[in-house]
Amino acid sequence: MHFQFEHQDSTIPFELPEGTHRLGGGPEDQVHLEGLPPALLTLSIEEQRLTVASSRTFTVNEVFVPPGVARLVLPGEVLGLTEQMCVRVLEPEVPVERGVGTVAVLKELLLGSEHVISRAATLTCLTGLDLGRTFAIGEALTDIGRGGGAKVRLRDRAVSRVHARIHHDADGFHLEDLGTANGVFLNGKALRQATPLTDGDVIELGRSLLRFQAPVDEPPAPIAEAPAQPAPLPPEPEAPAPPEPPAPPAAHPEPRRDAVEGWLLTLAATAALVGLLVTYALLAG
Predict the structure, then answer these.
(1) How many CA atoms lie within 13 A of 177 on its CB side?
(2) Which of 32, 87, 156, 171 could bond to 206 as cystine, CB 3.0-4.6 Å?
């Protein structure tokens, strides 16, 4: 039977076989816990039934039990030893019978589920009480199980307190079975040794199915480009030269004035000729 000793923020799991065991702070106590009186509790385990009797008053789920009274304690109940110390009775692991159609169920679940891109590796629960929960996988060692110390803690009674472990190093992610009774299955096949994980793999523990998503590398920052030089502006069109004023029309003499001047010149020439002729006649006579 599995137990867990809790003191302030620390927890220590332990296991006891069938039989009678003494718990206390004495050197002869099979379960020795410092700070407790010797032979404080007597635990009798028979066929997964636990009966507890005490030499002093103790509590079961905060209900007082007087000394010398045997009390049947059920899985999940807490034995109060002092104000800061207690022992929790853990629920037994449930054996799991796997169906022959597990691989087909995995394919149906994967086809019908959304795939969220993440920069960190994750495990997403596809079935059970933790359906839809996503756990980030970023440490070198990540334990998967039902116990309080597991990084990926599942509420599945068929899962051991520490059921499987994921190793993360420079070579990637590897899944390891920690020797549990129900085993670990990867993509429907029993895991025999530490095996690399790839994106989309489905891990089966107890009645829980977990999908592994590999981290997505962050894209490199874009290279800053030099600002583009603005294109040169086209030259401004020159302003058209103002049109030259039209040349003034050539002066044309009036026809009548030209005719009068020509007649006068002819008359003057005729008079001059006549005068020469008269003068010549007088001189000759």
Answers:
(1) 18
(2) 156
- Backbone angles phi and psi of 31, in degrees to 5: -110, 100
Share of the chain above pLDDT 70, in %: 69
Beta-bridge partner residues of 165 = 143, 176
Q: Considering just the CA atoms, what is the radius of gyration of the chain in Å? A: 57
Buried b (16+ CB within 10 A) or exposed e, 200-229: ebbbbbbbbbbbbbbbeeeeeeeeeeeeee
Question: Which one-letter amino acid corresponds to residue 222?
Answer: P
Q: Per 3-state DSSP, what percentage of the chain is helix, strand, and coil (rounded to 5)?
A: 15, 35, 55
User: Residue 53: in which H helix or E strand, if any?
Assistant: strand 49-54
pLDDT at site 104: 45
DSSP bridge partners of 80: 59, 86
**What's 164's DSSP letter?**
E
